[in-house]
Amino acid sequence: MEFCMWRKLSVAAGLGVLISGAARAQIDMMSAAWAKSACDAWNAEPVLTDELVKSGWVKNNANRGFKIMQIYRTDCKDSPRVELRVAEQGGKARCIYGGKVETAQLDLKVDYVMDAETRRWQEMGRGEYGPMRAMMFGRLSFDGPMGEAMGNMGPFEKFLLLVGKVPGAAACPK
Q1: CB-count burial class (<10 Å; 0-12, 13-18, 19+) for 19
Q2: Is 59 within the bounds of a domain?
Q3: What Å distances lie between residue 15 and 9, 19, 59, 76, 113, CA to CA?
Q4: What CATH number should be reported for the domain holding residue 110?
Q5: b/e string for 130-151 if b means 16 or more Cβ within 10 A?
């Protein structure tokens, strides 16, 4: 009986070590794996999936069927850009790809590039300020169709809040 109890305790302790190790093995913020999770979070956000169809944002796609957003962290020298692609599917603006950059040449009449320092992404992700303040104070760099973005401030803010919803380690990749 005593052996059985020690065996159960040993197994439980081993599982605790595995679980705590898994919690520490968090993906890097704005890595390809993080972008996949951000894509899933996009699809769960009604303001993004619905409002970007209603406003016509998703249709401005250079006739290729999707828009591209590339984002990255400026303070992490070795942090790659990641790419999100959004297309209209079933009457929704759905994220159809999140991962490493696959598009070398963007069309800045329809596509977006955004970058900020890690701490600024985190501040925006917590909702401390929105896109207007971030751009006005130089906390978020933005390339793309500015008028289109200005006409979609609600969805733009929801996009920035995704950074706070998608877990990711803030330390720069080594």
Answers
A1: exposed
A2: yes
A3: 10, 6, 49, 34, 42
A4: 3.30.1050.10
A5: bbeebbeeebbeeebbeebbee
User: What is the number of domains present in the chain?
Assistant: 1
Q: Is 173 a domain residue?
A: no
- Average pLDDT, rounded, for the chain: 88
Beta-carbon count within 10 A of 27 CB: 16
* Digit-coded pLDDT (tens) for 57-85: 999 999 999 999 999 999 998 778 999 99
For the chain, give percent helix, strand, coil, nearest 5: 45, 20, 35
